[in-house]
Amino acid sequence: MIVDERFLSELVAFCRSKVPSDPNLTVYEAARLLRQLEDGVAISDISCKMMVSSVMAALGFLYYKGVLNVNREECTVSTPEIEWNVKSFIELEIKGVSRLLPQREAISRLLRKRDVEIIFEFSQLPINVESLMRKFALMQSFQDIDGKDVIFIGDDDFMSVVCSLLGLPRRVVVVDLDERLLEGIKELSDEHGLNIETVKHNLIHPLPKELQGSFDTFCTDSPHCLGGILLFVSRGVSALKRDVETAGYFVFQTVNEPLLMEFETRQRLVKLITNEMNGVIQCMLPASIKYITPRDEKEKLMDVFLNAVKEPSLDDYFKRIEEALRPSSRFIEFYPEFSMEAALIARVAFRKPKPLIEGDYDKEAEKKYGPVYSWAIIEKHIAEKS
Prior knowledge:
By secondary structure, this protein is α/β, with parallel strands linked by helices. It contains 13 helices and 13 strands. It has 2 domains: 2-93 and 297-330, no CATH class; 98-291 and 342-385, Rossmann fold, CATH 3.40.50.150. The chain is globular. It starts with a strand and ends with a helix. The model is unreliable at 87-100 (pLDDT under 50).
């Protein structure tokens, strides 16, 4: 299969005819998609700025062109070996990092231990192994782990265990509301002698006094909405030491999401963190974080595709996709309007940190910044539509 500018332009033109509202539908994003398909991938694992409906349109285009292989047993799609004829194509993914680790068995056990039923109301969605490694490498490159006191504000990823296994932190504390996650982290900590401290706490309320002003680094992967990010980052900021340079890591979407992160929302978020919390954004690593889709939802999305490709033509295929995506399930219902892009990791430096939200996240704060949890926004949207 030869991929050149003409082939990519045809692919994008078809997608644009079906999803004209997608601002991220470009030749470059189509090339990113094809690069991932070379190795075979589950549809839900595709990382792309294009909306899900655009990705499904692109997959249909490739299928009807006869260049998409579908493995029904493994629920993956792939392309034949590609001969690239595109200038300056950049390698986009870090692959096989975990295979190089002497602690790979511990990492595998970590993944099994955190594999618990997701609580949607807490916006839980863990990241994959490559994302864990990428996040650790970024924190380590800024010397924010070794010899440092590190606090994790929520940790459904078990990032605290990764940093303790691969780095040499002086102290690690995890604050979370979910007892299942805290128990799993504690078990792994005891098993490997990591001395991770776990604290059950609802972040709606300020951190316990003994945790405030005590840490060199905080790390959080909060719900992906303005209220959630500001709350979790504020709690992290409150935990940082004063009058010395400290750092915080948070994650947010880099593309327009109609319910969660529009351009103006991202703009407001960055201004509040820099102007109101006295932070300096020193690094943003794009396309860094990929979340793991729940198993049942992954199968449903693949079923949508497999049923659609039974249609006789590409246009009929996309009509079936449009009909199927909307009512599929609670999780998939909003897929057509969301991108499949991985989120961005941001590092913020502080010297005189000032949390934006110091007291409880009450009705007044919610009125100002919106709900804390992403799913609260989505549930409200469902209620308004029905």
